[in-house]
Queue: 2 jobs
Job 1
Amino acid sequence: MTQKHVVFFDTTLRDGEQSPGCSMTTQEKLTMAHALEDLGVDIIEAGFAMASEGDFAAIATITQAVRKPRIASLARAKTEDIEMAARALQFADRARIHVFLASSDLHLEYKLKMSRAEALETCGESVRLARSLADDVEFSPEDATRSDRDFLVEMVRVAVEAGATTINMPDTVGYTTPEEYAKMFRDVRERIPAIDAQGIVLSSHCHDDLGLAVANSLAAIDAGARQVECTINGIGERAGNASLEELAAALYVRHDRYGVDSSIKLDQLYPTSEVLGNLITFKPSPNKAVVGANAFAHESGIHQHGMLANPLCYEIMTPQLVGVARTHLVLGKHSGRAALRHRLEQLGFTLTRDELQHVYYRFVALADRKKNIYDQDLVGLLPDQIRERKQEPVAELD
Ligand SMILES: [Zn+2]
C-alpha cells in the first residue's frame, strides 16, 4: 500500500445497520457484502460479533462467501468481546479485530465508570489480546474529538505500543469541524513518531450531526489519514456516517486537490446504493449528492440550455461515471424552449420556430398547473397538423 492509497472501510453492515429502519437479516447482509465487494471496498465491517447471535452469524457467513475485502468485527475492550470477534472471523482469509474504548472523560466517568489509569491499562491489555488472535488490529478511542488532547495522545501511544496496526479517531457525536479534526490528526502524528515510522494507518470515522461528516473526513485525509470509515447512502447512528459515494466522488473529481487514489469502482456507486435502498426501509433523499434521484436532474431553463450546449456547463461529473444511465432533463415550469425542442425531437417531432413558440406557451400554462410533465402530455399539446408529421426514428444514434 502506498501513501497515495486511501483505504475505504465500509461500515454499512455495522454502524449503518444499527440505525432505525436499517436492520438486515443474514441473507440480506450477505447480498450487501457481495455488492460492497463488487464496488471495491478494502474492508467490510460485517458486524459486532458480541452484540447478538444474528451479528455473529452474519460475520461468519460473510467471511466464507466474500474473499476480496478484509472482514472486520467490532469488539469492546473486553476479553469476551475480543474472543467472540476472533471466533466469528476464524474462516476469513484476512481478518481485522476492531477494538474500541472511550477516551473522553464524559464517557469514562458516566458510561464506563473507569478512571483514566484504568482505561490506559484496559486499552493495552485488549489490543495485546486482539493481536494474539489476529495480525490486523484496529483501535478506536471512542469520542476522540471530545477527549482531552494529552490523554488521547497517551491512549493512542499505549495502543500503538500494544501492536495496533490502524488507529481510528472517531468523531462519535458529529461535533468537530474540518480545521479542528485535521489539527487532531496532525497533533497525534507529530507527538507519536512511531505512527509514521511503523506505517500505522490513521483513520477517520465521522458522523453527520452537523452535516460535516464528508468535509471532516476529507480534512483528515489532508492531515495524513489513509483510511476513511463510511457507509453506503450515509446511513448510520442518528444523522448517519460519512457517505461512501460522496467521499469517493470527491476524491476523484478533486484529484487535483487531494492527490490520493482509492480502489472504489465509481460506476458501481449508484448500483450499490440501489441494492441497499431495496434492502432497508428507505432510499436516499432525492437531493442527496451523487446517488439521489435528482442528483443529475436539471429543470431550470438556463441550466437545461447550458446542458444541451455542453454538459460541463452544469455538471462536474457525468452520471455515467457513477453508474447512473443518463442525465435527466426534467420538463417543468422552469424549463425553456431549448429543452422542449430537444424532448420533442427525441419524440420524433421537428417544429419550426413559430410552431415551437406556440407549443411553448401551451406548455408553460400546463406546467403551472402540473408538477410533472410526461411525454404523453407533450404530445397532447401539439396541434393535429404537427402530430400527423411524426417521423419514426429510422435508427437510434448514440
Ligand atoms: Zn459511528
Note: The radius of gyration is 26 Å.
Job 2
Amino acid sequence: MSPHASPEVVLHPDAEVLAAATAARLLTRLVDLQSHRAPLHVVLTGGTVGTATLRAVAASPARAAVDWSQVHLWWGDERFLPDGDPDRNETQAREALVDALGDALPAANVHPVPARSDAVPDADAAARAYRAELAAHAREGARAPVPDVLLLGVGPDGHVASLFPGKQTLHEQRDLVVAEHDSPKPPPERVSLTFPVIRSAREVWLVAAGAEKAAAVARGLAGDDVTTTPAAGAVGTERTLWLLDVAAAQDLPAADPAADGDGTGRDGTGRDGTSHEGTGAGADAERLWARVDDYLAAVVDEPADAATVAAAAAGSGLPDIAVAPNQGRLLEILARAVGARRVLEVGTLGGYSTWWLAQALPSDGTVVTLELSEAHAAVARASLDAAGVGDRVEVRVGPAAESLDALVAEDGEPFDLVFVDADKERLATYVDRALTLSRPGTLVVVDNVVRGGAVVQPDHPDTRVQGVRAFVAALARDPRVDATVLQTVGAKGHDGFALLRVR
Ligand SMILES: C[S@@+](CC[C@H](N)C(=O)[O-])C[C@H]1O[C@@H](n2cnc3c(N)ncnc32)[C@H](O)[C@@H]1O
C-alpha cells in the first residue's frame, strides 16, 4: 500500500464558501486532534483564498474551542522581503488571524520565514535560519516537526509553495528548505519548504479557487509529472484533500458514483471531457447521469483497442479530457454514415477520438489530426501505430490555426467529416477554416459547446466560455451550414456538441 493518501476532492460553490468551509474544517480538525495530541503543527499558505481562510478562522466563534497555546504556525513559503512588507505571507497572516488571536497564541509559536534584514541579507540565509527553526522544534532524531495539517495554494501553472514547474527545487530530496532566486512569479527571491517536508505532513490540503486554476487542478489530480505540475506531488501520509470551488474544478472528471459516499467528492480516475462552469445540477443529478452512462455502456461496448489507447494516454500522464466511449462511438457512426474517407480532427491529445475515427475509415482513408503539444502527439502516434491504424493518421503538430491555414494553402481534397475538440478560445476561427476545407455534405462536429450551461452568461469570465459564445454567434448567421446544437448529460457532466452540415 502507498505510504501516501490518495487525493479526495471536496467542492464548494465559490471562493467565499470555500474559505469559510476550509476555516471550519481546520478548526474542527484542530479541536479533534487536540483530544489526543500536542502540540500541533500547522503550515499556512498565502494567496487570496489562503488568507481569506485565516480571516474566516479569526471570525469564527469556534476558534475559542482550540487551545492555541498548543498550536505552532509555520509557512510553506515566503517572499523574501523586508519585515512588514504587505506582500509577505506572514504580514497577511498576522493581519488576518495572528493579531486577532492575541495572547491566546504565544508569540513563540509563530514561526515566520525570516524577513530580509542586515542579519539576513539573502534568501539563502533565510532558508538556513528556517531550517534551524524547524530543527529546533523537531522531535529527537528528526530534522523538522511533522505537520499535522499543511495548507497549500495551487498556482495557475500548478506550483505549490514556491516550488515552480521545471525548477531543480522540485527534486530536492535532502534539504527541507530551499531558496528560490528566480521565481517566475514576482518577487524573484523566495524561500520554500521542499517536498520532503510537504510529503511528511499527516494531512495536506490543497486549496484552489477560480477558473484560472482549473487546468492545473485537473493535471494535479490526474497525477501529472511534478516537473510540469508540482501540485501533483503534494500528498499527505494520512490524507490529501483538494478543497476547490466549482470554477477550479471545472476540468475534473464527473463524479464516479461508486467512489464517494457523501456526494462531495470527485474521483480523478474517470474518463472525462471538460467543464462544470455553470453547473447548477448538483451532485445527485451528476451521479445519476454517470450511472446511466454506466448502465448504457454495454450498448457501446468499448473495443479493447480503444481502451488500450485510453490507458496509454493515462499512463503517459495526459489530462483526462478525451471523449467518452459513447461519444467515440458517435464519431464512428457519423464517419460511417457519411462514408467518410478524409477526416480532419482539431485536438488529438492521446489519439482516443482519433482511433474511433480512423478505424471507421476504408483502408485508403486518412485522418489529419492537429495537435499543439509534441508530447501529446508522440503518445498518440505510438498508440495509433500499436493499434494498427497509424498508417491512416497524419498528426500535425503546431497551433491549430496555423496548421489549418497550411491545409487551406495546400488546397487538397476536401474533408468529409471534421471533429473540432481543442482550445475553445479560437473555436470560431477553427470552424471557419474547417468549412473552407469542406464540400457540400461535409459534417462538422464541435465538442464542449455548452460547458455546464455557462454559455448563457454573457459576462462569464472564462475565456473558453467566451470562445464558445463567439462561435455560437457566428454559427447563428453562417449561411454556409445547416446547424444544430444538442445539450448532453452523462459521465462528462452537462455539456453539448454542435453538428453542422455544409450546404
Ligand atoms: C480535449 S483534448 C482532445 C481530446 C481528443 N479529441 C480525444 O477526445 O481523445 C484537446 C487537445 O487540444 C490540444 N490543443 C490545445 N490548444 C491547441 C491549439 N491551439 N492547437 C492545437 N491543439 C491544441 C491540447 O493539447 C489537447 O491535446
Note: The domain at 295-502 is CATH 3.40.50.150 (Rossmann fold).
